[in-house]
């Protein structure tokens, strides 16, 4: 085609014509697959089935017929709303005719996967992408037209979205115009590099989201100065060196999620929440979870509450010589902190003076997209799997979370790493995201049943932990509750649900962005917004709270710091050494060895 001769130019046009003819032929053959359709009516089932075989690798995935997919995804028989189906057919016919009339002029507008000039200047690729987007919109409309309960409909939508995302023409070299152009421009070097990247990722066991060779825990992430002052088989306790001449007398303990490593709170000095707390004058400690191996395969939720969270609270109290502490829990760490406080309340102890809960579920009514995975059969399977102990591999958990946002966290890197032969740029947050941890099987299945499935924490006395019936009506300490507006793991409604549990003074704040970016939003950057409410009332529905909330520019960190300050007591001279005496002397420098263990 580069020569410009007339007999060279019809190649693309002929290929596009063949593609169109094949597509229309299959549309016609399948036109009667929907009730009420005629032999001349293109239909969304037929269109997508026609399109799918044209893409390499899709058939090998064993995708069932669409109606079977709906039924399997829902776990029950489902039907489509006839009126909605008719409307979908009519809309599809209209758009299909429009696409057909555009022919080689069709453009896949509004999708960043097809935004480059390589797609726009390749007529067959552009038509393929535009056809894919039409079918994708139609499939999602069909998923939304499924009749059934909310969970069945959510499962269908989730499964269809996974199918759509996996089948994008951008995911396959035979259809990705941008990758093809790069292969030509580099004389095949990008393909060779892509194969090398694929082999590298197969060896390491996960798709590279960043250049992991750039980072090292303790060297350029998790660098806030401190020392390990206590350890047992479940965790190390790190104390951080004061950065102020005086500190508040009441110490501050952070409990991160044990499903991840703690240094999400200490990535770089400029975005470290831990360093920020130290700079505010708090004597700061953090739980660094051990990455479980077979020696921890029998550990339960009770073990983690009694021997880790409550133990960490007691050790911090002993080191500071104070009767109580301020504490913060992030995500599952917040769920464990809240559970520990309920256990202590049941024992008549109030060793936590105040608590902060960041993107935490205590009420599991609203669990967002994760709810599609959880039902009685799934939980029973996990209970049988771990009946005699065992480990839930961290890599499996990481993969599950990645496929909650597959285009951003899976296919984006498949295309970049393997089809284009690119090395993803260094990014501390994505390095942390790839540094997965295992979970003890008994802990994992107990958490699934009593929280995600049965939501027992919100039912006073429904569940017993460490010998105490859990009743949040007894947890009367002041609490600060934070939720992220676009969080897909802990939806804003789920985070807000904690306001209905605690009877004492509370403050709820909503931040912009998602589960991680919303939390790790340094005050110094002035990015994003947060919302507060001046009133002390907390309506049941978060939408009502949002309607009356006030937006403030920048991070919520300053609001939290101002709230915690009066909870922290008077200021005293900062300690000169770590720990306290021989009982809690420095064991090793922060971040310690537990956080460096790989899954």
Query: Strand pairing plus helix content: what structural class?
Result: alpha/beta
Largest beta sheet: what is the strand line-up? Answer: 17-16-15-14-9-8-6-7-4-3-19
Q: Which regions have little confidence, pLDDT < 50, spanning 5+ residues?
A: 1-64
Q: Please, what is the CATH homologous superfamily of the largest domain?
A: Alpha/Beta hydrolase fold, catalytic domain
Tell me the total number of β-strands: 19
The radius of gyration computed from the alpha-carbon positions, rounded to a whole number of angstroms, is 27 Å
Describe it for me?
- The protein folds into two domains: 11-185, no CATH class; 226-368 and 391-397 and 436-596, Alpha/Beta hydrolase fold, catalytic domain (Rossmann fold).
- The protein is built from 20 helices and 19 strands.
- It has helices at residues 10-29, 44-51, 66-74, 82-102, 117-120, 123-144, 150-166, 177-185, 189-204, 273-279, 301-320, 332-346, 376-385, 394-402, 406-419, 428-434, 441-453, 492-496, 542-548, 557-564; strands at 79-80, 146-147, 226-231, 235-240, 246-248, 252-255, 284-289, 325-330, 352-358, 391-392, 439-440, 464-465, 468-469, 479-484, 506-511, 529-532, 550-553, 571-573, 588-589.
- Strands 17-16-15-14-9-8-6-7-4-3-19 form an eleven-stranded mixed beta sheet, sandwiched between helices.
- Strand 14 (479-484), helix 18 (492-496) and strand 15 (506-511) form a beta-alpha-beta unit.
- The chain starts with 9 loop residues before the first helix and ends in a 10-residue tail after the last strand.
């Amino acid at each position: 085609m580069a020569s410009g001769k007339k007999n060279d130019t019809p190649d693309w046009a002929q290929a596009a014509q063949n593609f169109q003819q094949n597509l229309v032929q299959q549309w016609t053959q399948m036109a009667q697959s929907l009730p009420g359709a005629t032999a001349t009516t293109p239909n969304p089932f037929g269109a997508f089935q026609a399109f799918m075989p044209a893409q390499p690798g899709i058939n090998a995935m064993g995708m069932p017929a669409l109606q079977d997919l709906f039924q399997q995804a829902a776990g029950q028989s489902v039907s489509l709303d006839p009126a909605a189906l008719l409307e979908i057919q009519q809309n599809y016919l209209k758009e299909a005719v429009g696409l057909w009339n555009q022919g080689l002029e069709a453009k896949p507008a509004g999708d960043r996967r097809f935004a480059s000039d390589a797609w726009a200047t390749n007529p067959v690729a552009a038509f393929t992408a535009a056809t894919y987007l039409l079918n994708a919109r139609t499939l999602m409309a069909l998923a939304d037209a499924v009749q059934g309960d909310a969970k069945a409909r959510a499962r269908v939508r989730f499964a269809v979205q996974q199918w759509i995302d996996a089948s994008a023409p951008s995911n396959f070299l035979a259809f990705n115009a941008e990758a093809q152009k790069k292969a030509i421009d580099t004389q095949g070097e990008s393909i060779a590099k892509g194969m090398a990247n694929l082999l590298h990722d197969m060896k390491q066991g996960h798709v590279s989201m960043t250049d992991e060779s750039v980072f090292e825990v303790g060297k350029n992430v998790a660098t806030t100065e401190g020392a390990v002052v206590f350890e047992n088989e479940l965790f190390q306790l790190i104390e951080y060196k004061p950065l102020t001449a005086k500190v508040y007398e009441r110490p501050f303990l952070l409990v991160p999620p044990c499903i991840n490593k703690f240094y999400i709170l200490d990535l770089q000095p400029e975005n470290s929440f831990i360093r920020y707390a130290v700079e505010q004058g708090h004597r700061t400690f953090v739980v660094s979870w051990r990455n479980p191996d077979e020696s921890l395969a029998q550990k339960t939720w009770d073990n983690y509450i009694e021997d880790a969270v409550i133990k960490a609270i007691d050790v911090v109290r002993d080191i500071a010589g104070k009767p109580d502490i301020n504490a913060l829990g992030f995500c599952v760490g917040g769920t464990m902190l809240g559970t520990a406080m309920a256990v202590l309340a049941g024992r008549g102890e109030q060793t936590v003076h105040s608590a902060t809960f960041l993107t935490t579920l205590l009420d599991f009514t609203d669990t967002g997209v994760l709810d599609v995975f959880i039902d009685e059969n799934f939980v029973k399977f996990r209970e049988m799997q771990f009946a005699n102990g065992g480990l839930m591999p961290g890599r499996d958990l990481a993969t599950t979370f990645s496929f909650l946002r597959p285009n951003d966290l899976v296919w984006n890197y498949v295309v970049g790493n393997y089809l284009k032969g690119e090395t993803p740029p260094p990014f501390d947050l994505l390095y942390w995201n790839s540094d997965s941890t295992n979970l003890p099987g008994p802990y994992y299945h107990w958490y699934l049943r009593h929280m995600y499935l049965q939501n027992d924490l919100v039912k006073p006395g429904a569940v017993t932990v460490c010998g105490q019936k859990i009743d949040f009506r007894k947890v009367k300490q002041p609490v600060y509750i934070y939720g992220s507006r676009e969080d897909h793991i802990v939806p804003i409604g789920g985070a807000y649900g904690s306001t209905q549990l605690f009877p004492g003074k509370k403050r709820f704040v909503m931040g912009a962005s998602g589960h991680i970016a919303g939390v790790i939003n340094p005050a110094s950057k002035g990015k994003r917004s947060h919302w507060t409410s001046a009133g002390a009332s907390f309506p049941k529905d978060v939408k009502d709270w949002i309607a009356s909330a006030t937006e403030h520019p920048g991070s919520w960190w300053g609001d939290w710091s101002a709230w915690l300050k009066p909870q922290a007591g008077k200021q005293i001279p900062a300690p000169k050494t770590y720990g306290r005496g021989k009982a809690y002397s420095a064991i090793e420098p922060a971040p310690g060895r537990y956080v460096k263990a790989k899954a």
